[in-house]
Specification:
Distance between the termini: 77 Å
Bound molecules: nicotinamide-adenine-dinucleotide
Number of strands: 22
Number of domains: 2
Radius of gyration: 24 Å
Strand content: 15-25%
Helix content: 25-40%
Length: 490
């Protein structure tokens, strides 16, 4: 019988109040792995009430004690990384190595959050006037919640949750309904932490569940990651309801190749960037802008290297590219390519209809490279979220930067060059939150803030690092003067 996933609320597993279920599917085989509840307002209200009840005692637990749970959380993830990664690969399609890599990133965030007793320290000014001192303290905001996308089911909640609870908030994690299994397993494993009931909760579901988070009076802060349209909706609605919101959106990342770039390493890095996680990565290379003579070399070289990529089930050793997440996703990508070709784009490599051994029921799209794409076309301006590269040749770095800044998104941008001056100009002028210089996936370490610009981000404080600490705390300024019989009188 197919397993039906449960919510974890108030230290216990409970069934959703909504009996409507959705199949969770292995995208490499089409096999149904489990069923996840569509979710309900009642589930969120129950989780928020539990988190609120747990909050006062948790906020009054010293930070040094709170982080002891995180030290053990880190160990639990590390010890069980293979098992969690396999669940992630089966649900999400990415390779086992990619799943392991996201667990490493999750662990790095727990490690940074372990330093929160130090990160909570703030300024103290003695004698702002004679005998009067002023300082501020950081206190938790209350109940927080994260809403995450399908493409990094393990890592993304950890950009927020460890910081939130270490700062003294209680928390609700809402995984993507497409890939709920790895977080469910993590919550099963985290039961060994014996956290006080209600501190950490998980609720499954889709739009109704998210809307309940946006409306719940006890939830004070929301961290969202997903597509730009939904991010905008979350930011607008959550803010209108008086909550703190940080909403990370989609991407369409440009990569500039200068004529002086090293050919072999650049080709390798760009292929890894564009095809890793089957292109379903918010830092993936999407538009390759070759400058001058780079346009004579790189298109053919990229096509040659791309052809060699091995597709398949992510647990099979040697597989480099897994499937995309759903049949609808595959169809959407194929339609975008078809439309672009109809409008005059040239296919240097066509990944539609690729044959993958044993993958007849999987949602595979092979590496695809398009040239002669109209910069006003749908494919040029839409996040494809598949293993597709658009190549365009331009005459100068200025023109490349202008094109790189043209789109609605601003998540990441990379340049490949041996010129420090070109790299410097690029990083200075490009409108994106993450810049790679001879790096294809400019993913910040956990001790740096992570987010994009423009429609890749709505909010101000980003995920990870001291930004997460600021987002999940509020400052209280204290100005004080003390007198008693031993000191001066007023
Ligand atoms: P999505 O926007 O469809 O879903 C994200 C979350 O929002 C899920 O938990 C989902 O249940 C919920 N949701 C979906 N539609 C909703 C609606 N109408 N109202 C309320 N909630 C809704 O995103 P996805 O397809 O799961 O993930 C891919 C997207 O996430 C891509 O656009 C990708 O670029 C983006 N992403 C961004 C980053 C980043 O750091 N900026 C990182 C990873 C993924």
């Amino acid at each position: 019988m197919t397993r039906v996933l449960k919510n974890y609320i108030n230290g216990k597993w409970s069934e959703s109040k909504n009996t409507k279920l959705r199949d969770v599917i292995n995208p490499a085989s089409g096999q149904v792995l489990s069923q996840v509840p569509a979710g309900s307002k009642e589930d969120i209200d129950y989780a928020a009430e539990s988190a609120r009840s747990a909050w006062w005692s948790w906020r009054n637990t010293p930070a040094t004690q709170r982080v002891q749970y995180l030290f053990r959380m880190k160990q639990i993830l590390e010890i069980n990384a293979d098992e969690i990664a396999e669940i992630c690969t089966n649900e999400c399609g990415k390779t086992f190595a990619e799943s392991k890599a996201e667990i490493v990133r999750a662990v790095e965030n727990i490690e940074v959050a372990c330093g929160i007793p130090r990160l909570l320290q703030s300024d103290f000014s003695e004698d702002i006037a004679t005998g009067i001192d002023e300082f501020y303290i950081r206190q938790p905001v209350g109940v927080g919640a994260s809403i995450s996308p399908f493409n990094f089911p393990v890592m993304i909640p950890f950009w927020f949750m460890p910081y939130a609870i270490a700062c003294g908030n209680t928390y609700i994690v809402k995984p993507s309904g497409k890939v709920p299994g790895s977080m469910t397993r993590i919550f099963e494993l985290l039961q060994d932490l014996n956290l006080p009931a209600g501190v950490l909760n998980m609720v499954h579901g889709g739009k109704d569940t998210v809307d309940a988070i946006l409306e719940n009076q006890y939830i004070r802060a929301i961290s969202f990651v997903g597509s730009s349209d939904v991010a905008k909706y979350i930011y607008r609605t959550g803010s209108a309801n008086g909550k703190r919101v940080q909403a990370l959106g989609g991407a369409k990342n440009p990569v500039v190749i200068m004529p002086d770039a090293d050919v072999d390493t650049t080709v390798k890095i760009i292929c890894d960037s564009a095809y890793g996680c089957a292109g379903q990565r918010c830092l993936a290379a999407a538009i390759v802008l070759t400058v001058g003579k780079a346009g004579e070399v790189f298109p053919a070289k990229l096509a040659e290297a791309s052809k060699e990529k091995r597709l398949g089930y992510g647990m099979t050793p040697g597989v480099e590219i897994g499937p995309v997440i759903t049949g609808e996703s595959k169809e959407r990508i194929n339609k975008l390519i078809e439309k672009a070709v109809g409008e005059g784009a040239k296919l240097l490599l066509d990944g539609r209809n690729i044959k993958v051994p044993g993958g007849d029921n999987g949602f595979f799209v092979g590496p695809t490279i398009l040239e002669n794409v109209d910069i006003e076309s749908e494919i040029y301006n839409t996040e494809i979220f598949g293993p597709v590269i658009i190549i365009k040749n331009v005459d100068s770095l200025d023109e490349a930067i202008k094109l790189a800044n043209k789109g609605h998104h601003g998540n990441a941008a990379s340049i490949f060059t041996t010129s420090g001056a070109a790299a410097r100009k690029f990083r200075h002028d490009v409108q994106a939150g993450n810049i790679g210089i001879n790096i294809g996936i400019a993913a910040p370490m956990a001790f740096f803030p992570f987010s994009g610009w423009k429609e890749s981000f709505f909010g101000d404080l980003h995920g990870q690092s001291f930004h997460a600490v600021e987002f999940y705390t509020q400052t209280k300024v204290v100005i004080e003067r003390w007198h008693d019989e031993w000191t001066r009188k007023f």
